[in-house]
Amino acid sequence: MDIAIIGAGAAAVGLLDALAPEAVDSVTVLEPAPLPWRGRPYQPDLDSVLVNVPPEIMSIRFGDRAHYARWLERHAPGAYRDERLGQPIPPRAVYGRYLEDTAEEALARFGRAQVVRAAVTDVSPGERLTVRTVDGRRYAADRIALCVGGGTPLDHYGLTGAPGFVADPYPLERTLAEIPPGRHVAVVGAGLTAVDIVVSLAARGHTGGISLVSRSGTLPYVWQRPVETAVRHLTPAGVGSLRGPVTLDRLIGLIRTELAEHGEDWDELAARIAATAEADPVTNLREQLGMVDTPLLGRRIIQEAAHTAGPVAWRLLPEADRARLRSGHFRTITGLASPMVPHNAAALLDLFDAGGLRIFPGIEKIEAARGFRIKHAAGTHTADVVINAVNPPPHAIPSAAGSLVSSLLGQGATRHPHGGLAADPDTGRLLVGGRPDPCLYVVGDLAGGGPFLTSGIPGVAAQAHRTARSLGATPR
User: Which of 15, 60, 76, 437 has the most CB within a 10 Å radius?
Assistant: First the structure.
């Protein structure tokens, strides 16, 4: 078959790597970005912009957790080690090179392959599908995979266009270079993007004040040193083997069983997690950094399960339980699953202790007027620069894919109620006219109803594997 892949980020890399060459006649990848394969997160940037995850959770090859670690050891043996974590934590641009290498090796396996540097405007049905690009070129294909990536950050306070407002911080190498070192910088958000910004400002020698302003004022957790957890129950197979309906209560029972076999108690861990959300963020950061080497396995088990068993569990949960997780526990779960690395946590703590960094919860509004006036629970303060560190909403449709999505909607595709396009969860096939289309597939964040952790590489790799299997191009 001839396959067209629209988009060239991590989802496309995972799919290319999963496809069996003997089942494919040709592959055409269509992507307008000058540097394909890296997506938005892994473009060249400052060395202070780090991969926030240990290597074993960043493999783009489904079923081979050591794939990225082997690549890293070949290309940078012994480098980028976070001594507290005991793991290499390279700059994100290095991970981008890993994605590039993986994609190029995969393309070389196919008899015919090409990368077209152009945006796709529409897909037309017919005896064979036709992909049309913005410059009018047309490409025929038997199967099409939509791998267009995620959206862009939202401007919650209507600041776009105001002097000193940075709507999208990446690449930080460009955006931070335009900020004078003595200016006061307010960062909207307190998640991993905000951590990147603060650590990078400090690395560049910024001397002005820095404030983190957000609704919750809760900082990410800090990674604990990876150890062997010997998980037996909270695995994809364990969740999939549950008899009868899979509910949130049954999953919690599975967690209880897993922790009990490791001599720990779920109620105690849940209480500690709940207390963290109410604690002073600087005190909590100090405690988190002091627990990097804790022998307790509970949090490590939950983190591992979120990336491995989580995508399976999410697909099986009824909508009522999904709604409970989305509305009441989204930030807690994502914070547990995607902590910051100890190197960055230590850098933040140094800034807090030196008085160069403050955090303000309860943000209410930001007004642009000769700088910025920020109102929050503790009062108001002013800033010269505001950097938006709010994450794109899950399953948002990228503006560059707007014409493509409109053409698909015109042919009977539908939007998922929680974002993205509706797709069959078992095959990745796009729903057209309410039925899975045998020729159109969705991989990555555009797949509405996809994994809870939409940006997690394990979930993307699992989707790519599933799609290759559904295509009949059996993965290795």
Answer: 15
Dist. CA 169–CA 282, nearest whole Å: 24
Q: Which amino acid is present at 175?
A: T
| 3-state SS class at 463 | helix
Closest CA to 57 of 322, 300, 262, 221: 300
CA 12 to the chain's CA centroid = 15
pLDDT tens digit sequence for 140-189: 999 999 999 888 889 999 999 999 999 999 999 999 999 999 999 999 99
DSSP string for residues in 124-143? E-SSSEEEEETTS-EEEESE
Q: What is the 3-state secondary structure of 219-237?
A: CCCECCCCCCCCCCCCCHH
Distance CA 220, CA 322 (A): 22
402 C-beta neighbours (distance < 10 Å), count: 11
The closest alpha carbon to 97, from 108, 86, 105, 88, belongs to 105
Mean pLDDT computed over 265-280 = 90
Look at residue 56 and give its three-state secondary structure: helix
Cα–Cα distance, 166 to 387 (Å, whole number): 5
User: Beta strand pairing status for 379-383 and 372-376?
Assistant: antiparallel
Nearby residues of 307 by Cβ (< 8 Å), 6 or more positions away: 57, 337, 453, 456, 458, 459
Look at residues 311, 284, 226, 309 and name the one whose alpha carbon lies nearest to residue 53: 226
> Which ranges of 84-210 would DSSP assign to H, the alpha helix?
92-109, 172-175, 192-203
Show Cβ contacts of residue 224 under 8 Å, excluding neighbours closer than 6 positions: 291, 292, 293, 294, 299, 300
Length of the chain: 476
Beta strands in 314-391 (DSSP E): 357-360, 365-368, 372-376, 379-383, 385-388
Rounded Cα–Cα distance for residues 395 and 393 (Å): 6
**CB-based contacts of 140, cutoff 8 Å, min separation 6:** 2, 128, 129, 130, 131
Dihedral of CA 69/70/71/77: which sign? positive
**Alpha helices, H only, 329-448:** 330-337, 342-354, 402-410
Please state whether the predicted TM-score (pTM) of the whole model is above 0.85.
Answer: yes
3-class DSSP assignment, residue 332: helix
Mean pLDDT, residues 256-282: 92
CA dist., res. 4 & res. 130, Å (int): 9
Pull the structure tokens for residue 68. Answer: 């990225």
Residue at token pair 């949960």: 317
Residue 414 half-sphere exposure toward CB, CA atoms < 13 A: 13
